[in-house]
Recover the amino acids of this structure.
């Protein structure tokens, strides 16, 4: 089978990472979690004692740091300058600051170069918020995943069992809605559905159903898949 690239975009909590990883595993493609890359930058900035408001320092850190994504037993591992930061980039502090970091044009420019390089050999499933519209505009298949804010909040709430004492479902719903606005309104590469992307509303779909639908699109739209 000739390899091709799949771009999966969508708002926070839409299930992009889970779906993209399963699709990549089924096809034997490489999975690239761009959201984890922005989280890695945010974690590095915060752990270095730099305020997200200090744009020049944030850009300098992004330019210097090394980010490596690797498959692990429990999903993708994220290494920052050789340190396994997989768990740390999922902290509430990182979540609360990542949209601000991701809105910085030069941060996006630096990471976009890295992402394009990863996809140059084809056979990549990449997820994020600007993949089909900006990073991989020539991807052979583009998917825009979404779901209601309430359902996305419920999914995230179910993922953070160890943090439930410090956050409520209503808080998560409010935070996700606010993050949607930030992502959609940022000046550089905002969250939009690419004109040629297939919209999949996963509000009432299971993970298996979403994966099967994307594999079907691989067969019908691209001529690949299993």
């Amino acid at each position: 089978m000739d390899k091709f690239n799949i771009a999966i975009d969508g708002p926070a909590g839409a299930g992009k990472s889970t779906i993209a990883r399963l699709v990549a595993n089924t096809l034997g493609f490489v999975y690239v979690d761009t959201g984890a890359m922005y989280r890695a930058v945010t974690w590095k900035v915060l752990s270095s004692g730099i305020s997200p408001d200090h744009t020049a320092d944030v850009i300098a850190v992004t330019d210097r740091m090394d980010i490596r994504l690797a498959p692990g037993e429990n999903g993708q591992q994220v290494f920052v300058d050789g340190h396994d930061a997989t768990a740390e980039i999922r902290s509430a502090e990182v979540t609360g600051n990542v949209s601000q970091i991701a809105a910085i044009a030069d941060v996006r420019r630096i990471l976009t170069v890295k992402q394009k390089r990863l996809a140059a050999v084809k056979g990549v499933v990449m997820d994020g918020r600007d993949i089909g519209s900006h990073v991989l505009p020539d991807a052979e298949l583009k998917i825009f995943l979404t779901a209601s804010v309430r359902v996305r909040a419920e999914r995230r709430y179910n993922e953070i069992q160890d943090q439930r004492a410090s956050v409520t479902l209503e808080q998560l719903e409010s935070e996700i809605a606010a993050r949607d606005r930030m992502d959609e309104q940022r000046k550089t590469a905002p969250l939009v559905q690419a004109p040629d992307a297939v919209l999949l509303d996963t509000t009432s779909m299971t993970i298996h159903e979403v994966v099967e639908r994307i594999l079907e699109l691989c067969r019908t739209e691209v001529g690949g898949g299993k």
Observations:
- The chain has a mean pLDDT of 91.
- The CA atoms of residues 17 and 37 lie 12 Å apart.
- The chain has one domain: 6-214.
